[in-house]
Amino acid sequence: MGVGADNKTVSTSSKFTLQQFEEEKEEVELDKMTPGNAEAMRLAKADHLPTETREMWGRRLEFVLASIGYAVGLGNVWRFPYLCYRSGGGAFLIPYFIMLFLCGIPLLFMEFTVGQYTRLGPVHALAKICPLFKGVGLATVVISYVLCTYYNVLMTWALYYLLHSFSPSLPWQSCNNTWNAVGNCSTGFPGNATHLQSASQQFFDHKVLEMTKGIEHAGGIRWELFGLLVLAWAIVYFCIFKGVKSTGKVVYFTATFPYFILFALLINNVQLPGAKDGILFFLMPNWSKLLEVQVWVNAAAQVFNSIGISFGSMISMASYNKFNNNILRDTFIVSLANSATSIVAGFVIFSAIGYMAHIHNLPVDDIATDGPGLVFVVYPEVFSTMPVSQLWAPLFFIMLLCLGLDSQFAMVDVAVTFIMDGFGKKVLQVFKRKELIVLAVCSLGFLLGIPHITRGGIYVFQLMDHYTAVVSLMFLAFVEVLAITLIFGVRRLSVMVENMLGKKPNLFFRVCWQFLSPMLVLGILISSIFQYTPARYGKSYTYPFWAEVVGWFISLVSIIWIPLGALHELWTTEGSLLQRLKKSITPTVDLESVSEKPSAESIALFTAA
C-alpha cells in the first residue's frame, strides 16, 4: 500500500512537472514567433479560441493602400466638393481641417490600435474591450454589410456607363434615341426651364434605370443591370477570395490608378473655357458661414463619414498587421491622403462644371449638384462636349470602379473576418475552404442587391442610403467612442499603444480621446436628430408612410444589436446586478502579456528539451 501511495504521488508530481514543462515550452515557442502572431496566440489561448496563425499583409504598403482605397471612395468625388461650396467655399476648409485633426485622425488611430493589438475583427475586438457593449462590434458588421449590398449597385451603374462609353457616339449626347421624351428633352442643361430634362438625365432615368413613378411600383427586374450586378460581385469575389493575400495585390492598382485619372482630368479641365469661374465658385471664401453651427457639424460629419469610422473596416484591416507596425504613421498617411484627394476632386469637378456653365451660358449654381446625379448625369454631359470624349468617358468610369471597389473590398471583408474569428472551425467543417465562405458572403450580398436593380430600384437605393448612412451611423459611432475612450479608458488605450510602438501616445491624442472626440461625435449625433428629415428622391418625390417604416426598420437592423448585446452580457454574467455591471465593463483583453519575457529557467528547460 505504501509503495502504491508513493508511486501515485510521484506520478501526480510528474504530471504536474510535465504540464509545467509543456506550458513553459509553449510560451518559449510563442516568443520565437513574430510579436503579432505570438500575441494573437496568447489571447486566443486565454479565451479558448482557435489558435491558428492569423494571416497578415505581405507588406506594410499593402495595408496603407488598402486603407487609403477604403477611405477614398465615391463620396470624395460627389459629396465633398458640393458640401465645400455650399458651406462657405474656401472658408469651409478651416472647420474641415480642425475637425480632421480633433476628431478624424484621433479616432482612426484609436480604431487602428484596437484592431492591430487584439488582432481580431470588430465584433470580437470590441467584446474584449468592453463586454457590455459587445453588440457595437456586431452592429458595425451589420451596417457595413447592409451598405455593401447597395454600394455594389453603384458599381453596376458604372459598368453600364463604361460599356456604353465605347459606342461610336456617346448615347447620352443627343435627344434622338428611343428612350428620349422628345418634347421635354434638352441637349444640355435646361437651366430655369423646369419642364425640360437634359439628354444625360433622360439616359439615366429612362435607359439605365427605366425608373417607375415610385417605390410602390417595382416594375420588374432590369436584366441588363442584373447581369452587370453579377459581374460586379464576381470582380469583388476574385479580388478578395484569398483574403489579404489577394486584396493586398489588387490594391496596388485599384488604390493608385484613380490618382492618375484625377490628375489627368485636372490638367485637361483647367484648360477648358470657364474652368476658372468654376474653381473660383468652389473656393471663394464666404467667411460669414463660419458663424453657422451647421457648417461645423457638416465638416465633422464629412470627416467622420469619409474616413470610415465605425464601419468596422479599419479595425478589421488593422487586425492583419504585424503587432509592432507603426500605425501612428499610417494614420496620418491615410487621413491626409483622403483629405488631399477630396480637395483635388473638388478642382476636377468644379472646373468641369464651370466649363458647362460657360457652354450653356448658365450660372454655376444651376449645374452644381451632389450624389449619384453628379457622376451619372452632370459629368457624362460634360464628356459629351469635351474634346476626345471617347477617351475621357471610359477612363472616368474606370476610375469610379476603382474607387468603389476598394471600399467594397473592405466592407465585405468585415463580414468574412467576423465569421472566421467567431466560427472559423465550425464553418470550415461545412464549407471546407475559406474561398467558399467568401463566395457565400458575396452571393448573399448579390441576392440582397436585386431589389435595387428593379425598375423601381432607385427609390429602394435612396431609402437604404438615407436610413443606413445618415440615421443609424452616428448613433453607432457615438456608442463605439463611448465604449473605447470612456469605459475601456484612455489609460488602457495608451498602454496598448505603448506595447506596440514602444511609447505612449502624446498629450494631444489623450486629450482628444478623453474629451474632444466624444463631445464632437455627440454634437454630430444631436444635430442629426434635430435636423432629421424624411427620405426624398429628387425635389418632388416623397416616400409613402409604409416605406418610411421600412426605412426605420433598416436603421434598427444594425443598432438593435447594441442593446441586445448588453442584455445578453448582463444575463449570462453571474452575481448581483451591480456585480454584473462591474464585470461587464471590465475588459478581458490582455495588456501585459506582450511585455512579459520568458524566464531563464524556461529558456534552459526548452533548450534542454
From TrEMBL:
It is found in: Membrane. The keyword Signal does not apply. It is a multi-pass membrane protein. Na(+) binds at residues 69, 71-72, 76, 306, 338, 403, 406-407. Its main location: membrane. InterPro entries: Na/ntran_symport, SNS_sf. Keywords: Disulfide bond, Membrane, Metal-binding, Sodium, Symport, Transmembrane, Transmembrane helix, Transport. Disulfide bonds join 175-185. The chain crosses the membrane at residues 63-81, 93-114, 135-163, 221-240, 252-275, 295-320, 332-357, 391-416, 436-454, 466-490, 511-530, 550-571. One of its GO terms (molecular function) is amino acid:sodium symporter activity. One of its GO terms (cellular component) is plasma membrane. It comes from the Eukaryota. Belongs to the sodium:neurotransmitter symporter (SNF) (TC 2.A.22) family. This is Transporter. The gene is LOC107741213.
